[in-house]
Amino acid sequence: MLSGIQIKMARSALDWSLKDLADACGLSEKTIRRLESERMIQSTTVKTLTLVKSTLEAAGIEFLGTPDDRPGIRIGRPSSKCE
């Protein structure tokens, strides 16, 4: 679904701190830091990853590739819909 580097790249592209993303998702900074440190995220629930992904997508991030095949991001327009 996502790699840690994609989450970190997305957060950086938005100029968000760990706290900014954690607050936007309703998660702890420790959780975001752990997610970003994992190359292949396997120890996290689908619910948590879906929450992080939808939060970043609503802010205008498009995720490209897969975690094991050319993972990346593209910066687009923020969604007018909050999730």
TrEMBL record:
* Database matches in SMART domains: HTH_XRE
**CDD domains to which the protein is assigned, alphabetical:** HTH_XRE
Q: Which residues form the HTH cro/C1-type domain?
A: 7-46
Query: One GO molecular-function annotation for this sequence?
Result: DNA binding
Q: Which InterPro entries match?
A: Cro/C1-type_HTH (IPR001387), Lambda_DNA-bd_dom_sf (IPR010982)
Q: Which Gene3D superfamilies match?
A: lambda repressor-like DNA-binding domains
Q: What is this protein called?
A: Transcriptional regulator
Source organism of this protein record: Roseicyclus marinus
